[in-house]
Amino acid sequence: MSSSMVFAVTGVLLFAIGLAGMLIAAHLLRKVLAFNVLGSGLFLVLVGLPQRDGMADPVPQAMVLTGIVVAVAATALALALLRRLHALTGATSLPRDTDA
Amino acid sequence: MPESVAGLVLIPLTWAGLAFALGPGRGGRAALAGLVVQGGLALQLAMAVNDRRSAHVAAGGWDAPLGIELAVDGLSATMLLLTQLIGLSLVIYARAYFGAADPERRYFWPLVGLLIAGLNALFITADLFNAYVTLEIVGLAAVGLVGAGGEAQRVGAALRYLFATLLGSAFYLLGVALMYGAYGTVSFSSLAPLLTAEMSVAVLMAGGLMLAGLMIKSALLPFHGWLPPAHGSASTPVSALLSALVVKAAFYLILRLWLDLFAAQAAPLAWLPALLGACAVLWGSWRAITAVRLKMLVAYSTVAQLGYLFLVFPLLAGAAAMQAVVMQIVAHGLAKAAMFAAAGVLVSASRQDRVAGLQGMAHHLPLTIAAFALAGVTLMGLPPSAGFLAKWLLIQSAFAAGQWGIVAVVLAGGLLAAVYVFRVLRQALMEAPTARPISPVPRTLEWVAFALAGASVLLGFRAGDLLGLLTPGVPG
Amino acid sequence: MSEWLPLAVLASSLLPGIAIFLLHEDSVRVRSSLNVFGACTKLLLVGILLAGVRAGQDYEVRYAVLPGVDLALKADALGLLFITLSAVLWLFTTLYAIGYLENAPHRSRFFGFFSLCVTATMGIAMAANLFTFFVFYELLTLSTFPLVVHRGTAKAVRGGTIYLAYTLVGGTVLLAGIMWLHNLLGHTEFARGGITAGLSADHVPQLKIIFVLLIAGVGVKAAIVPLHGWLPQAMVAPAPVSALLHAVAVVKAGAFGVVRVVYEVFGAEFSESLGLLTPLAIAAALTILWGSLRALGQNDLKKRLAYSTVSQVSYITLGVALFGPVGTIGGLVHLVHQGLMKVTLFFCAGNFAETLGVHKVSELDGGGRRMPLTAVAFTIAALGMMGAPLTAGAVSKEWLIAGAIEADLQWAVWVLWASSLLNAAYFLPILWRLWARRAPNAWPDERIAARHWQETHWLLLLPPLATALATLGAGLFADHPLSPLSWAQLIAGQEYPGRASP
Known about the structure:
The complex is a heterotrimer of chains A (100), B (476) and C (502).
Chain A: H1 3-24, H2 28-48, H3 58-89
Helix pairs in contact in A: 1-2, 2-3
Chain B: H1 2-22, H2 27-50, E1 55-58, E2 69-72, H3 74-97, H4 105-124, H5 128-147, H6 152-183, H7 188-194, H8 201-217, H9 227-233, H10 236-261, H11 263-266, H12 271-289, H13 294-310, H14 319-350, H15 361-364, H16 366-380, H17 386-400, H18 404-429, H19 443-458, H20 463-470
Antiparallel strand pairs in B: 1-2
Chain C: H1 4-22, H2 28-54, E1 60-66, E2 69-74, H3 77-100, H4 107-126, H5 130-148, H6 154-185, H7 204-221, H8 230-233, H9 239-248, H10 250-266, H11 268-273, H12 277-296, H13 301-321, H14 325-356, H15 367-370, H16 372-386, H17 392-406, H18 410-436, H19 458-476, H20 484-495
Helix pairs in contact in C: 1-2, 1-4, 2-3, 3-4, 3-9, 3-14, 3-19, 4-5, 5-6, 6-7, 7-10, 9-10, 9-14, 10-13, 12-13, 12-18, 13-14, 13-18, 14-16, 14-17, 14-19, 14-20, 16-18, 16-19, 17-18, 17-19
């Protein structure tokens, strides 16, 4: 298996683990962590897949940098909201969907 | 031309920063000034496109595949105009809506600036990764707006929205990654010729992932769960912005991907979004009919109306289909913004948020109820509104393509919309059993709602101009 | 000139309507003046239109809404029949409404929608294609809803909801038919002799379905059984609204739609060749009988008149379904005559309710003595409904029966006779009570006291007397070149060009 396939498969596995975590975990902090795992898997695919002759492709690396920035911002927002929810209600998971 | 394009992204970013620096009170003025200028730029772009000059700008002078490309055609110009118009109206509304002590004011103006900057950038983006970036800007700003200054219900809705939107973007980005891995480029113009040939499994997977991610972000059934709480609990100007513009952004990208890149390969699967759209129309309308809170009714109406947009995919072979889509996006955008604006006034004035508590409102707030009624006329697709024209074009395309099911769904959807719109109007026209206290509401709010609703109806007469804008640059 | 006149006719009620919405509730003078001014201006403009069309002038105005889809208004003989009726009756209904709603709440809102309603009716009459027809048809639905729920009580709102349910579903069915036809033909312009005859034979099954869709769509407003359910429920509206709905605007619009569909979309000859007219005649006949039967059992006066409307409007449908110029003339002339007679009846019913608090037939005893002028008007109109000689109703009945004979539908003749008998059965008791019975000691709710000969407010007296006189006039002077009958003969002559006009 070429190195790009190794990276790609690993990335997809991490993506799947993160996805499962986001969907299944009830505790919000776990969801955020799972999101970060998912993100890492994503970036691994993005960088690892388009390798040519063992040389890294610079364009996806730029994309991944952007992606990391976005992920950091998103995580920060999630944590801020999470803290506020906890401060207001003491809850650590999303309330049941009530849309009366 | 490049200046207008750049201006549309840079100006909102500027006043967003300015609003943050100036503090809660003054941010609104910066927003107002900025949006007026942006409106002018969007108009200028639209006229340029009308003269058959579509723009293609390489940011910073770097061409693809290294640089970021921006492109404006008829569809983009229309979306830009809609965004600036609704943005301007809602900024005027928000300035009057937020009281002096409202904690939300601090966050609203900078976040709105970010949101509009992101939306403008999204409508002019010409490569897949830039689309991801703009989607994230829009998504995060929207989440922030939903949760801003709110109590537990709002924060919970914001979190739900955040996770949904992040999930959507994640799927989308994975698709982009696979795409880049297969072709080595992400720009639309480079990819389009490459994709006409027989596609590999990886590329089909990539396409599927991207479309799935975008469907989550555009709240297509069954991924709609995040929308009603978010739109229903947020403050009124935020709900209006979200329903009228943000969900359309994701749909716009689906349309672009479908038309520019995956047209031939995706055609046999076109029944899937159409089926989901049909279910959305029926389910969303049903939930709106049974909704207890007014803003939930309007939010579920959004779910239903978005379903109409997805019905168009099997019809894209015909010429009228694109016109139908654009008409529906514009009509619904204006009408939904108007409806949320009116709902906000009604909730403020009657000091409660249930539909059943609106008795006698037609007497106290005739202008607002008129605005709600006009917006409802557009949503029901009754003449002489823009919504009626959208319905006509959609049904015409469906007849031409022999899709009787779509005709039936569109007609049924109009009737179901009538049920929930008239639920509200009936309550308003009823005499209130006892005299009730009515909070005074700034007249500006009523007039904005009425203006938006009036625009959605008047557009029914001037549709020719709008559709003419579309034709020079229709992709595909 | 030829372009702005149709628009001016619309504007003569639209502009005052918009102005009235903005008026304060207490500006009675301004509002009444605007109303009457609008109505008179409209009559004047319609008069100019009539003179013009008689002289052979063409009036048409078009506006492209979408590529290939036009909003188009034109003034042709058939449309003018309807416009003239509506314009004349609107003036009287406006006067009546001003008198009836004195000191009632929400008058500005009422008269604003009132004007919109008439604008929509004018648009329906002048529509030059099905698209324009549909636009104004739905506008009519939307502008009449606030009128029906005007009183704001739970009962009014329920009545309005039922009204809306029927009319919106009808509108949807109508739209389906229109769009299907548009898909087949590329346009939906009205033309004498119809536009569908040129299609190939493969399309015949589709055309039959389209016919059913279109007739069902307009049939809701035209109260063809079983689509009539909204009409009795809409009686919860104030009397001027009932008069408007049942004589001037809504029901007539539906009947007018049936006429347009049969004659100017499908064409009489083509419809007959497709075998569509006989089922339509049967539906009309069923409605005529059913409406009359239900009217017998109603004690509430307005409900009795409502079922009478259901029955009488289908005379028009029957006339249309009777192939041949004689039947057509019968149906068309009854469009006018029924309008005159029914509006009179509703005006009178409103007078009894408003002046004496009388809502039920059983409470009408001695009404003739207390309110002689109203009772006389009622009597004339009721006699007309029964088809008594010298009235407009007699003229319609005569032509309809002749038309049935000409079209070889003997059973239709029996239906018409049966209906006349049933009409007598439910109107004669009312007349008996009015004239022959003694009044009770106290009326249920006497609100307006009698002053000499003025049994009630003059604004409530003038309109029914005027329309009752018109009923007599249409009957007595039916042979005059300017009578509704002559106009109907003109239209029928155009529709059946091959035959000599009877």
